[in-house]
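Now for today's protein:

——
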Amino acid sequence: MNRRDFIKTSSIVTLPLLLKSCGWQDEGQPFPVHVHSDAGTGHLVYQSDQYERITGESVEVVIVGGGIAGLAAACKLKDRDFLLFELSSTLGGTSSAYRSEELTFAQGAHYDMGYPKSYGSEVLDLLESLNIISYQPWKEEWGFTDQEHLVMHRRKNQCYDHGEIRKEVIKAGRLRDRFFELLKPYQGQMHLPTRLIDAKYRPLDRLSFVDFLGKNLDLNDQFLAWVGYHTKDDYGADAHAVSALAGIHYFTCRPYNSEIVELFSPPEGNHYFINKMADRVGGDRLKPNHLVKHITETPNGFRIEVIDTINQQVRMVTAKKVVYAGQKHALKYIFPEDASLFANNRYAPWMVVNLVLERSADNWGYWQNEMLTRDETFLGFIDSTTQHKASPRHRVLTAYYCLPPSSRNDLVNVETTKNQIAESTAQHISNYWGKDIRPTLRQVDIKVMGHAMPIPGKGYLFDDKNQYRKNSNIVYAGVDNSRLPLLFEAVDSGIIAAGMI
């Protein structure tokens, strides 16, 4: 069957529509489908009223959240008396990973790229001390120490656009040339972290990317769909919803058009960074399966209720200071005094679907397979055959969906519709290759993240909420504190927060 015939015979329901109802007919699957989610948090909170309460525990600092920002703060505070609490069974947050026998699945952020020397020294120093990066004087930039996890440039990406295969998402042509010419003056000016960007560029954060482009280019819907695919991939929304500064930053923060930029993608994705930081700190003070239920101010600091979900206990911990690196939407339950600071944040829900196939002789692929289809929430997939230490017996395809904020409440239906999600994802990829992958499919794992990515809309950046907090002994970290949703920003936010206490 050729590609055109296969596409004609494949009918795919868009993910938002699929999630709207749990009334789909379930015919079962010949392979297991697992769902990973923290959706049961509310149940834990109510159930914990019956748990044994443990009192008398005291530390200097409590860190809430075991993602990139929380671990970065822990690294800076490693010589201090602290405990870190993370709800999930593993550390990582949106950079989590999962192991099943010899397989490793990235369940969130899955790569990073080399760093120009103009990037923030605080993060560069920490990553160098962890032996993750080293300075390359001949290139005047920072590259990755583990060369084995670099993806070869010729295998980096390929785009599928409604049946057409090409190298790049934005199609070659006069409008593409004018687009990059318009952005050229910003090359080298869009630093990370964004707090280092010169003040003269900050007004760009007050208009949308589409408004900025429309003043200079004769735009059309097709071109905006291509640009919007890129911004949705990193920022959770299209070019209408993100600020001009965020959009410009995406395309100009590294010399993509003039140099080959290192792309670092281990099989576990950005959980690689989590493991490095956890090793630096030591495991005794890092507590997964612990949900921070409530933080109360006291004359000497804070009293913190922590649910130990494994031992079914509530630990009453006192601390002088708190680094809050968890998701800010939960503050209305945990520390309502500061919840209003983050009330205007908008988040994109994400779903990561790992498909395990039997590995065949046909094992040459591209690392990132970018896809534009009728389902605008489906962004494509990563192919493990391009990564070092990929499984010799299996091929793992990691597919990504970015949903609109309005779909967040529908995620409760994922467990009910998991077989349909697996089927739909397999059809997307089958269309890409022009052949049915389902006969070789052996396992599917679905990771659901309801508040995965803060959307950097107009006026979002450069407004650190720490300057408005009511108590100087609680400090906020994370990319949902007026940061771009990028690894470098998350690390910097943790370092800065640790320095403030």
